[in-house]
Design a protein that fits this description.
The complex is a heterotrimer of chains A (662), B (345) and C (215). Chain B is α+β, with helices and mostly antiparallel strands. Chain B has nine helices and twelve strands. Chain C has six helices and one strand. Chain C has helices at 27-56, 79-90, 92-103, 107-131, 143-176, 180-214, and one strand spanning 11-13. In chain C, α3 (92-103) packs antiparallel against α4 (107-131) and α3 (92-103) packs antiparallel against α6. Classes of the chains: A mainly alpha (662), B alpha+beta (345), C mainly alpha (215).
Chain lengths: 662, 345, 215
């Protein structure tokens, strides 16, 4: 069936009466129910996305509280607020939860919410797997924090180097908790990555070719591919570590005495660990592109360059991992190659910065809270990127590695490059998600306070690192003279905490009583702003055809819209990958209890794996049972064997069609 | 770009804070050796280049902030930008990228050359070899005498080096990964089990410096320090010769001899070595010349009688998690024990 | 700009489009392909670990001293692995036929081939269960034992998952009958099958042949 045959450009039979009655049917078909059970089984991408974001922010606050406590311990020399055991659990949990339970999930959650809307489809590719991913993430987070409360929190650092984390020195179950949290969250993220790629490949609105995709969608596509190739490494290595540690298994992957290799752990971990930070950063670059375009009132400058930069960053990002190992006994020549690649990756990042600055230079600014957060992004991320150039040099890194200089660097790039755009994105899309505006003045205050607090905490750390203060120390001697700058950093931490409180208050208040937003309060360009705020469950009653690179700004009054999708089943449109021409209709799934059941089995399997290897076959069997139920519940309704499909007909289970009046 | 203009007072405080923490006995920007100097210059080159880049980008944004016309949500967006301006912008961005590439290339070459220079000390034979073994949470230091291994001097948590001489450090780990970092003298190097490694350094300014473990190694990673003394070759040789001598046993009937008996009869001898006695434990630091050390407990405490007593009685209070157990002694016994230890010069 | 609120919008009528297309036109195919990409990355890492152990272990494979009799030449036995390889590669025949029958909508053939492929699969799993002993080491002996068991074990996991998928499609076909969507599922099962076989050919070469014939 060619596009020409499809395009029956008759004068429309979309009359106002038809629109209204069809909408009523769609609302009923796509309704997910109310009540607790409905909430447990609701697979709608917007519901799952919001749950991801809210849960991630709860972990953010918990992890941030750990950080504030750590800063309180470090504010003066020889402090006794946290002993070494508690401090070690705190910094490990802080790093683990920020990386695995906040940064990646929140970026994925935003993607899960925004990508289907932005590309003009009604649901994500695999809705039940999406909900499954969320539950896995939730269970992993509960595992980590419950362990910390029970004093068996992991304590070997968020990268758990062997032999310290191995069976000989990592006593008890602490590191096993870490391993399972990592394994569970990585499965969750991998499943979301698959979902995002397939959604972007197959479900874009007609006319949204790859070169007309919003830059945020590009960044999520590249991020998803990075996840697919990076996360298996850490999942595998954390499982191997668990097996080394489990006394009934007792493998020797990292046991030097039996042919294993402690440096192997570092290679495996950082092969994942470096792409991981780009997995956090690339979606943020998507936010920056979107926000700058809207608030500079022009298309982002350098679309092709920005897409190429994202792809280049992803590729090169897999080739820099040894720069985390410059102090180890690896051969010099090998290390120098990684200096070259680590400096090479600065170039696409530079291209991105230049394109954004140019967009701002050429545009006309509407200064609102989202844009102010982007200003903060520039101020902080650029500095972090530049300290990264310093760390890329092997000899210079031998002085800076494992000191507070590195702590400063990665907080500058992760908070400046990831979290500031994230806050901007929350202020930007909150109206779409909830139908209400966040208070703009509070938003600006939020950004400024966070900027000041952040710099108070982390700028002094550059100096502390140069002055000899190593990382991961629960205290330091008075005579080092590090007390003053540490005190300044601690005060800054409290300022950041106040900024976070401002944010939470703004969100809660605006959610309850903020001004009503309307469809497109920012005058923005992407498709999600063409539907109501919040969008209907099915997103688009009539999926629009895209006519140019600016989805809404180029949209003409009589643009084509898709008709002919079933009203009585959850149907959406699949298009071709390259130029997004319609090719098939797809039946998607409604609410299901199986994602929750399967997630309980998966998480339970990993948790019991800390104690016995028999959990593996047991969990495999139980998962097979759950998945059987999951797939068996695929409905045969509206899916008659080999019959042709006609509009507005219902098929009963026997496959017999009957017409229904609208 | 929106930045608060800091008040002058804040600037002064900031400068003061920076100054109070720059330089010192554990600082990478207070070089006391030729290699550390090379690394420090490398730092300043990178610092100034990146600072200029940062300032340029920020200035561009601040200028854009002030010269920019404002708009609002209603304003028609610019969907067909003026091609002339776009082309000019493309050329400017292209130029900026070219400058970035060249700058990075220059920095990379500078880095390679500095690295080669720092490592070049290892090309000629060293004047002194020292083996450093990392333990959870102390440094075992053994001065090597190639011709005559019985001349090896074993000490702990301290390093004496002669200035102007090439010192070879051989690193290995007894348990987990540690990292020896002496910022005034050299970059850090990890001590990884089954991967013995070596580096060479030279101290040029006499003085006392600190090194510290820089790879998280467990509970007391924070208190694993090493005291470095760089001194003239003559002073160094005096110190080394003193280390080679076995301390004479205390005369009978003295409080020191009673202390020695207590030492040998209690658990001390199971973990510690004192040459010239039967104490040959290898778990904890060698105590043969403990009285000559300025610090105990890997740099956590000054080496005074009071601190010794506190450490022996309750090491867990000072370094919780350390492998040394608590020890209960009567006051007299404790005094005798510390008197004995203070006699081990 | 709001959704179609006026009667002026041109209609793009998609009601005649099919609901199922095969291969890269379907979301399920892509989901499966990406999951296989993940698993390939995982096997890639396992192969890298294998070579890392090889570089660390001199001689390779190490002599077996953990149990009697002591073996100085400890290359894995080849007999059972070769039988297993033959079974796995031969299973391609019924699975290719199954793939073709699905595309040609031949319900009868599908109903015969599903049990046949399942049988091949189960035989392969049983052989694999006994194949671990051919490695001559246990997973807890040393790093070489650990990595070889891990490689065989992870692949066995896929043999089992494949069998479960086969069982499921068997049940659906016999109980609910064949429909468009499940014809697609059968072709996707085919892709998974080819991947399991292909990956095993590579892993077989690395675990069983490389030490014996190249070192």
């Amino acid at each position: 069936m060619t596009k020409e045959e499809l395009e029956q450009k008759q004068s429309s039979d979309i009359t106002p009466e038809v629109i209204g009655s069809e909408r009523a049917i769609l609302e009923r078909t796509w309704d997910n129910g109310k009540g607790f059970y409905a909430w447990l089984t609701d697979c709608n991408h917007k519901s799952v996305g919001i749950r991801y974001i809210v849960t991630a922010f709860i972990f953010f606050v918990m992890s941030g509280s750990l950080a504030v406590t750590m800063r309180t311990q470090l504010m003066g020399p020889e402090n006794r607020i946290l002993g070494p055991d508690m401090y070690n659990q705190f910094f490990t949990t802080h790093g683990t939860s920020m990386m695995f339970l906040f940064a990646v999930p929140v970026m994925l959650g935003m993607g899960v919410y925004l990508v289907p809307l932005m590309i003009g489809t009604r649901e994500i590719a695999f809705p039940r797997m999406n909900l499954y991913s969320y539950y896995l993430f939730l269970f992993a987070g509960i595992l980590l924090f419950v362990a910390l409360i029970l004093n068996i929190g992991p304590d070997a650092g968020w990268f758990a180097y062997v032999p310290l984390s191995g069976p000989e020195f990592g006593i008890g179950k602490r590191v096993d908790v870490w391993s399972q949290v990592v394994s569970i969250t990585e499965i969750s993220a991998l499943a979301v990555a698959v979902n995002i790629v397939v959604t972007i490949f197959k479900q874009r609105a007609p006319g949204m070719s790859l070169s007309r995709m919003p830059l945020y969608v590009w960044s999520m596509l590249v991020t998803a591919f990075m996840i697919i190739f990076a996360m298996p490494a850490v999942m595998l290595s954390s499982t191997l570590l668990s097996m080394d540690r489990l006394s009934k298994v007792s493998t020797h992957f990292f046991n030097a005495a039996e042919g294993g290799d402690p440096l192997l752990w570092q290679h495996l971990f950082w092969f994942f660990g470096h792409p991981e930070v780009y997995i956090i950063f690339l979606p943020a670059t998507g936010f920056v592109s979107m926000i700058i375009a809207t608030f500079a009132r022009r298309r982002t400058f350098g679309y092709t360059a920005l897409v190429m930069s994202a792809i280049a960053t992803a590729f090169i990002g897999f080739g820099v991992w040894v720069h985390h190992m410059f102090a180890t006994p690896l051969p010099q020549l090998g290390q120098s190659i990684f200096t070259a690649s680590s400096m090479l990756i600065v170039i696409p990042n530079g291209v991105q910065i230049f394109c954004w600055v140019t967009t701002l230079w050429l545009g006309k600014w509407n200064i609102k809270a989202p844009l102010v957060w982007i200003f903060g992004f520039f101020g902080i991320f650029v500095l972090g990127g530049l300290t990264g150039v310093m760390l890329a040099s092997v000899p210079l890194d031998t002085q800076l590695h494992d000191t507070f200089f590195v702590v400063a660097h990665f907080h500058y790039v992760l908070i400046g490059g990831g979290i500031f755009p994230l806050f901007g994105a929350i202020y930007y899309w909150f109206p779409k998600m909830t139908g209400r505006m966040l208070n703009n003045t509070a938003g600006v205050v939020n950004a400024v306070l966070m900027f000041i607090g952040f710099n108070m905490v982390f700028f002094p750390m550059h100096i502390l690192g140069l002055d000899g203060m190593p990382r991961r120390v629960y205290t330091y001697a008075t005579e080092t003279g590090w007390g003053n700058l540490n005190m300044l950093a601690t005060i800054g931490a409290y300022v950041m905490a106040i900024a976070a409180i401002v944010f939470v208050v703004n969100v809660v208040y605006s959610f309850l009583r903020g001004p009503i937003a309307g469809d497109n309060p920012w005058g923005a360009d992407t498709l999600e702003w063409s539907v109501s705020s919040p969008p209907p469950t099915y997103n688009y009653q009539y999926i629009p055809e895209i006519e140019g690179p600016n989805a809404l700004w180029d949209m003409t009054k009589d643009h084509a819209v898709v008709t002919g999708l079933h009203l009585y089943s959850r149907e959406l449109l699949h298009t071709t990958i390259h130029d997004a021409s319609p090719e098939k209709r797809h039946q998607t799934h409604g609410p299901s209890i199986f994602p929750l059941l399967t997630a309980i089995i998966t998480a339970g399997g990993f948790i019991t794996f800390m104690f016995t290897p028999w959990s593996v076959p047991t969990a495999m069997f139980l998962s097979a049972v759950c998945l059987f139920g999951w797939f068996w519940s695929n409905s045969t309704q509206h899916r008659p064997p080999f019959a042709s499909i006609k509009d507005n007909l219902i098929y009963d289970d026997g496959g017999v069609p009957r017409e229904v009046a609208i | 770009m929106k930045r608060r203009q800091p008040a002058r007072g804040v600037l002064f405080i900031a400068a003061g804070l920076v100054a109070s923490s720059c330089g010192g006995r554990q600082s990478a920007v207070d070089a006391a050796g030729i290699q550390a100097e090379r690394l420090e210059s490398l730092w300043w080159i990178f610092f100034w280049v990146t600072a200029v880049v940062y300032v340029v980008v920020m200035v561009l944004l601040i200028v854009a902030f002030f010269r920019n016309k404002r708009s609002n949500e209603e304003e028609r967006p610019d969907t067909i930008p003026d091609p002339t301006r776009e082309n000019r912008a493309t050329r400017i961005v292209g130029g900026a990228v070219a400058i970035t590439v060249i700058t990075l290339f220059v920095l990379m070459i500078t880095s390679f050359r500095a690295g080669r220079a720092v490592n070049s000390l290892g090309e000629k034979p060293p004047d002194l070899s020292i083996k450093v073994t990392g333990h959870q949470w102390w440094w075992e230091v053994e001065y090597q005498d190639e011709g005559n291994p019985s001349n090896n001097v074993t000490t702990a948590n301290e390093l004496h080096v002669p200035i102007g001489r090439t010192v070879k450090i051989m690193l290995q780990s007894n348990d987990v990964i540690h990292s020896l970092w002496m910022p005034n003298l050299h970059g850090k190097k990890d001590l990884v089990p089954i991967y013995p490694t070596t580096f060479y350094f030279e101290a040029d300014k006499p003085g006392n410096y600190w090194g510290q473990c820089a790879e998280f190694c467990g509970y007391e990673h924070a208190k694993m320090r090493i005291a470095i003394t760089a001194e003239s070759p003559e002073d160094f040789q005096t110190w080394l010769n003193a280390g080679r001598r076995t301390p004479p046993p205390p005369s009978d009937g003295t409080v020191e001899s009673r202390g020695r008996d207590i030492f040998l009869q209690s658990v001390c001898a199971q973990c510690h070595t004192v040459s010239g006695t039967n104490a040959a434990g290898r778990v904890g630091p060698n105590l043969t010349h403990i009285a000559a050390r300025p610090y105990i407990a890997a740099g956590s405490l000054q080496n005074t009688g009071e601190n010794l007593e506190a450490w022996i009685t309750d090491p867990q209070h000072i370094k919780p998690g350390v492998y040394m157990p608590m020890n209960q002694y009567s006051d007299d016994d404790l005094l005798a024990l510390t008197a004995y230890l203070k006699s081990l010069k | 700009m709001s959704e179609a609120r006026t009667a002026k919008n041109v209609a793009l009528d998609v009601s005649k489009l099919p609901t199922t297309l095969f291969d890269a036109h379907s979301a399920l195919w892509w989901g499966n392909a990406l999951l296989l990409a993940i698993e390939t990355a995982m096997f890639g890492i396992l192969i890298a670990i294998y070579f890392s152990v090889m570089m660390q272990t001199e001689p390779f494979p190490p002599p077996r001293v953990e149990r009697l009799p002591v073996l100085y030449e400890s290359f894995p036995n080849l007999t059972l692995p070769i039988v297993g390889l033959i079974v796995i590669v031969t299973s391609l025949i019924p699975s290719i036929m199954l793939d073709k029958s699905a595309r040609n909508k031949q319900v009868g053939m599908i109903k015969i081939l599903l049990p046949i492929t399942l049988t091949f699969n189960i035989v392969a799993i049983v052989i694999r269960y006994y194949e671990f002993d051919s490695l001559l080491f246990k997973w807890e002996d040393n790093a070489y034992g650990s990595i070889t068991w891990m490689i065989l074990g992870m692949h066995m996991f896929h043999l089992i998952a494949l069998a479960c998928e086969d069982v499921f499609l068997l049940a659906w076909t016999y109980v609910k009958g064949v429909d468009d969507k499940h014809l697609l599922d059968l072709t996707v099962l085919g892709v998974y099958w080819y991947w399991v076989v292909g990956v095993w050919v590579v892993l077989f070469g690395i675990v069983y042949l490389v030490p014996r014939f190249t070192l």
